[in-house]
Amino acid sequence: MTDSESSEIQPERRPIASRSSGWAQALSRKLAQSSVTPNQISVWSVICAAIGAGLMLGYSHPAAWIGAALCVQLRLVCNLLDGMVAIEGGKKSPVGAIYNEFPDRVADSLFLVAAGYAAAWPALGWLAALLAALTAYVRVFGGSLGLPQSFGGIMAKQHRMAVLTAALVAQSVLWFFSPSLLVLQIAVVVIAVGSAWTCMTRTRDIAARLKTS
């Protein structure tokens, strides 16, 4: 989830350890002092995802996979900085709540669908993208009931992107020894199954909180 917030609607923020790191603090301050807006940073996360997806779809080569892995990480950096610029930098937007969610769903789908095609299992890529979106739906649904939004689970966004990044790097190494796409295939399976499990655990958590409220 990106972290830009609206001045009227205050979505909860995903806990991110790197938010307190020196490089993130310094870069967010520079961006906050510039003309760049948090919402523009959110849009850039989608652009990074589109480039990464294009690399996975267009080329079955280590250079493309490494480039896609870098795009995954750049997307995460954008997700980190948009909220920091919005909140700590004092540049909240009335439509920040929209940019808080929609670009993330698009970026997830671009990466995961492309990963499915790159792994030669397109249907599973689409399934992984659907389940990833469902994890966010369950989280936001819990918030709509007045409960704290749950960012937990074994396959939250940061876990999905970590699995995908590791798989792309590992696949680029495997390419020198075998034409197999096994690593990417395993990654898409892990993301799909883990996302389904995350949906179930978040739903159980919502049910438990409702019973005790």
What's the total helix number? Answer: 7
How much helicity do the residues have?
A: over 70%
Structural class: mainly alpha
Binned strand content? under 5%
Q: Could you say what the CATH topology is called?
A: Four Helix Bundle (Hemerythrin (Met), subunit A)
Instruction: Write down the secondary-structure element order.
Output: HHHHHHH
Q: Oligomeric state of the chains?
A: single chain
Shape: globular
Give the tally of structural domains: 1
- CATH architecture field: Up-down Bundle
CATH first level: Mainly Alpha
Task: Give the integer mean of the pLDDT values.
Answer: 90
Number of strands: 0
Given as residue ranges, the uncertain stretches (5+ residues, pLDDT < 50) are 1-10
Largest sheet: none
Q: Return Rg in Å.
A: 18 Å
Distance between the termini: 27 Å
CATH superfamily: CDP-alcohol phosphotransferase transmembrane (TM) domain
Give your account of this protein's structure:
With 213 residues, the chain is an all-alpha fold. The protein has a single domain, classed as Four Helix Bundle (Hemerythrin (Met), subunit A) (Up-down Bundle), CATH 1.20.120.1760. Helices cover 72% and strands 0% of the residues. The protein has seven helices and no strands. It is globular, with a radius of gyration of 18 Å. The N terminus is likely disordered. Keywords: Membrane, Transmembrane, Transmembrane helix. Pfam families: CDP-OH_P_transf. One of its GO terms (molecular function) is phosphotransferase activity, for other substituted phosphate groups. This is CDP-alcohol phosphatidyltransferase family protein. InterPro entries: CDP-OH_P_trans (IPR000462), CDP-OH_PTrfase_TM_dom (IPR043130).
